[in-house]
Design brief:
292 residues, alpha/beta, Rossmann fold, 2 domains, eight-stranded mixed beta sheet, AB_hydrolase_1
Length: 292
C-alpha cells in the first residue's frame, strides 16, 4: 500500500505534577474534533509516544493524541511496580485535559490492557475502543504457567538486572503456543543474543518490568465491557499466531462473546522495527475502517 503520511504540528502538554506528571502530545488542532471525528488517542505501554508517531501520521482528518505512559519516555522514572489502575487513571486525566469530550481510542499491548481498565471505570471517556493484543493471562488455560514465567522474570530482574530479565521476556513473547510445564527448565537465554549486556548496572527503572505482574494478571470486568457492544473491538495480528498477546486477545474476545478482529501484520505491525518489518499503512487502513 502506498504511504500517505502528512506532517502536522505537534504540541507537547503535561497533566499533573511531580511523580504524577504525564506528558502527552497533540498532533494537529483539537478544535477540529467533531462528534463523528473525535480526537484519536493512540497509546501503548510501556512503549512511549515515539512508537505511535508513524501511525498517527496516517490520520489527518482529525486531531491525534499520543502520550508517554507512567514511568516511561519523558515522565518521571521510579523503581516501584505500576498498576493497571494507575495507568487507567492517567488515561482518564489526559482525556479530561483535552476538553473535547469522548475520544476514539486505540490501545496496543499493555496499552490495550490499560484501555480495557479505562472502559470499566470511565466508559464516558471513549466513543469507539480498539484493544490490540492485550497480554492477559487470566482467561488462558495455561495461566499458572504464564504467571510462573512472569515471577521468574521479576526474580531475575531483582537479582541479575535488566539484560538478563529482558532476554527472558523477549524469548517468552516470541514463544508460539501454550506455555508447557517444563518451560522454566530450559536454559536461560544469553542477553547477547538480543544485543544486550548481561552486566547488572544496578538500575531498576525499566517500565516494562515495573508493569509486571499487574498487566499480565489483570482481570477484565466482563459486564462493563459487554455494555460497550460493538463499540469495543478486540484485535489481533494475522501474523501473530499463538504468541501470548494474540492468545490474550482471543481469550478476551471469547469472554465477551465477540469475534476477534484481524489486523495486518503482528504485535508491532503498526510501525517498522529493525528485524521485524510491519505494515503500518495497512494497519492504519484497517484501524480507519474499524473506527468508521
Amino acid at each position: 500500500m502506498t504511504e500517505n503520511i502528512t506532517e502536522r504540528t505537534v504540541t507537547r502538554h503535561v497533566v499533573g505534577a511531580d511523580d504524577d506528571a504525564i506528558v502527552y502530545d497533540v498532533h494537529g488542532d483539537l478544535a477540529t474534533a467533531t462528534e463523528n471525528r473525535p480526537a484519536l488517542f493512540l497509546f501503548a505501554a510501556p512503549m512511549d509516544a515515539t512508537g505511535l508517531a508513524q501511525l498517527a501520521g496516517y490520520f489527518t482528518d482529525r486531531p491525534v493524541v499520543t502520550y508517554d505512559p507512567r514511568g516511561a519516555g519523558r515522565n518521571p522514572v521510579g523503581t516501584s511496580d505500576i498498576s493497571v489502575e494507575q495507568h487507567a487513571a492517567d488515561l482518564h486525566r489526559v482525556i479530561e485535559a483535552l476538553g473535547t469530550g469522548p475520544v476514539d481510542a486505540f490501545g496496543t499491548s499493555g496499552g490495550a490492557v490499560n484501555l480495557l481498565a479505562l472502559l470499566a471505570t470511565h466508559p464516558e471517556d471513549v466513543r469507539i475502543a480498539v484493544a490490540h493484543e492485550p497480554p492477559l493471562a487470566a482467561g488462558l488455560p495455561d495461566r499458572e504457567e504464564v504467571m510462573a514465567v512472569v515471577t521468574d522474570m521479576k526474580r531475575t530482574y531483582a537479582e541479575e538486572g535488566d539484560g538478563a530479565a529482558m532476554a527472558k521476556f523477549i524469548m517468552f513473547v516470541m514463544f508460539d503456543g501454550p506455555v508447557p510445564d517444563d518451560y522454566l527448565q530450559r536454559p536461560a537465554p544469553d542477553p547477547a543474543m538480543f544485543g544486550m549486556s548481561a552486566v547488572d548496572d544496578g538500575s531498576r527503572t525499566n517500565p516494562l518490568l515495573r508493569n509486571m505482574p499487574a498487566t499480565i494478571d489483570y482481570r477484565i470486568d466482563v459486564d462493563a465491557l459487554r455494555a460497550f457492544g460493538d463499540r469495543l473491538v478486540i484485535a489481533a495480528g494475522v501474523e501473530s499466531g499463538d504468541t501470548f498477546a494474540a492468545r490474550g486477545a482471543r481469550s478476551v474476545a471469547a469472554a465477551l462473546g465477540v469475534p476477534t478482529a484481524d489486523f495486518p501484520s503482528h504485535h508491532g505491525g503498526f510501525t517498522e522495527q529493525p528485524g521485524s518489518p510491519g505494515d503500518p499503512a495497512g494497519f492504519a487502513a484497517r484501524l480507519r475502517d474499524v473506527l468508521g
